[in-house]
Design a protein that fits this description.
The complex is a heterodimer.
Chain A lengths: L4 E3 L2 E4 L5 E6 L6 E7 L5 E8 L2 E5 L7 E4 L6 E5 L8 E8 L8 E2 L3 E5 L1
Chain B lengths: L3 E2 L5 E4 L4 E7 L4 E9 L6 E7 L2 E5 L2 E6 L4 E6 L8 E9 L7 E2 L3 E6 L1
Parallel strand pairs in B: 2-11
Antiparallel strand pairs in B: 1-3, 3-8, 4-5, 4-9, 6-7, 7-8, 9-10, 9-11
The chains are: A mainly beta, B mainly beta.
């Protein structure tokens, strides 16, 4: 069964450093997302991406965050200057088309900011 | 009022029991309703996906949506220890570009 692949599975970074979280969505999917889950809390929407541009972003997704799909297969989330409160599980997700809400999520990257 | 509310549990049942998991919501624009299963420190795994009101069955799982009451349910028949996980409801409105709004998740434990 096709999978959404995320790397790394765990990243530890110092406060103020830049991190890039990587995702390979399912190849024929058109819509891409990043969500995050702080330990013990809800899964929260960060950003949606379609047709090579951001279609929607949440209040969390401020100027410190950016997304890119540089080569037609990878989908990255960059945090420019990490803060302690950015520590969370980050999930990439994709879905096939506008009529299908059957998202597939990746296994996540656990980001720890120290 | 929170957009999506879900009792976090924990819920503990004996093996073979029927499990009922529920969510309520406030946004009448929601039309797509999903149930995900999440194991500890893993990504959500899609179990059931329904559009608008009605029932959907898949093996031991049945999803129900009652839009008039803004209430959705997931039933698990003949529950197994392997069903022990956190169950997340999620929903989306067509005009939200596919953004999912999640409930808190209900932690389920099925005891042998």
């Amino acid at each position: 069964e096709p999978e959404v692949t995320q790397t790394p599975s765990h990243q530890v970074t110092q406060m103020g450093q830049e991190v890039i979280l990587r995702c390979v969505p399912i190849s024929n999917h058109l819509y891409f997302y990043w969500y995050r889950q702080i330990l013990g809390q809800k899964v929260e929407f960060l950003v949606s991406f379609y047709n090579n541009e951001i279609s929607e972003k949440s209040e969390i997704f401020d100027d410190q965050f950016s997304v890119e799909r540089p080569d037609g297969s990878n989908f990255t989330l960059k945090i420019r200057s990490t803060k302690l409160e950015d520590s969370a599980m980050y999930f990439c997700a994709s879905r096939p088309d506008s009529a299908n809400y059957g998202y597939t999520f990746g296994s996540g990257t656990r980001l720890t900011v120290v | 009022q929170k957009e999506v509310e879900q009792d976090p549990g924990p819920l503990s049942v004996p093996e073979g029991a029927i499990v009922s998991l529920n969510c309520t919501y406030s946004n009448s624009a929601f039309q797509y309703f999903m149930w995900y299963r999440q194991y500890s420190r893993k990504g959500p795994e899609l179990l059931m996906y329904t559009y608008s009101s009605g029932n959907k069955e898949d093996g031991r799982f049945t999803a129900q949506v009652d839009k008039s009451s803004k209430y959705i349910s997931l039933f698990i028949r003949d529950s197994q220890p392997s069903d022990s996980a956190t169950y997340l409801c999620a929903m989306s409105a067509y005009n939200q570009g596919g953004k999912l709004i999640f409930g808190q998740g209900t932690e389920l434990s099925v005891k042998p």
